[in-house]
Amino acid sequence: MPCRFAGSRSLDGGHGPGSVADQELMLHPDSYTPPDATDIPSGQIKPVKGTPLDFSAARPIGGDLEAVGGKPVGYDHNFVVRSDPHKLREAARVKDPKTGARSSACRARP
Length: 110
Prior knowledge:
Elements: E1 2-3, E2 24-27, E3 31-33, E4 46-47, E5 59-60, H1 65-68, E6 78-80, E7 89-95, E8 102-107
Antiparallel strand pairs: 1-6, 2-5, 2-7, 3-4, 3-6, 7-8
């Protein structure tokens, strides 16, 4: 099931305005939908493993930012969260290592 995490105050670790590059992100999807030349999801589904989009283990958001590419550079991707659509499941977790603030997003459906 596709799940898109857009700019959200619920995922900013309580940091508020400013950079989130040092915040630690963990995402549970195993796939994503790559964008086409116009930055619209292409409809393909590709694995995140081994790519700059692999946040299966918590790591700083800004760690592979340049490798993600894009114009402008950054994360603007749809992630595919596979789960039972009738059960709530954690899809993402973020932690600000400076303040200890944490946030998570749970999904049952897109």
